[in-house]
Design goal:
It is a single chain. The protein is built from 5 helices and 2 strands, in the order H-H-E-E-H-H-H. With 113 residues, the protein is mostly helical. It has a two-stranded antiparallel ribbon. Helix 4 (94-101) packs across helix 5 (105-112). The chain is elongated.
Length: 113
């Protein structure tokens, strides 16, 4: 092996090693950022507690789904009704709206009238 080819091999090998070192460093930085982001997240349970507290204080109004697992604001319900009307060509039965949007018929009736 000539010294010239050995020198190129050495340079290429060093470049590979430095590239891998950089990749490892970036992985470590990503891992640290991901850890920091989870520190600032609320759990689903905490989110539900915050929303429930706002509802109890009267600062937030929500419409509960038929199964009680979800809720939306009255404004969002209105938007969803308008979206369904658009999709259905301008006409849709209120009973179908209630079923599609998973809310009680009375909420649909209130928004439509």
């Amino acid at each position: 092996v000539s010294t010239q080819s050995t020198g190129h091999y050495y340079i290429i090998n060093n470049l590979r090693m430095s590239a891998w070192a950089e990749v490892r460093q970036l992985q470590e930085e990503l891992y640290n950022v991901q850890l920091e982001a989870t520190k600032n997240k609320l759990s689903e349970r905490n989110c539900v507690a915050v929303i429930q507290r706002l509802v109890n204080l009267g600062w937030l109004e929500v419409v509960y789904s038929c199964d009680g697992k979800e809720y939306i604001t009255p404004k969002q319900l209105e938007k969803d009704i308008l979206d369904e009307l658009y999709v259905c060509g301008g006409r849709v039965a209120m009973t179908d709206l209630a079923q599609t949007l998973n809310v009680d018929y009375s909420h649909i009736e209130k928004k439509v009238n």
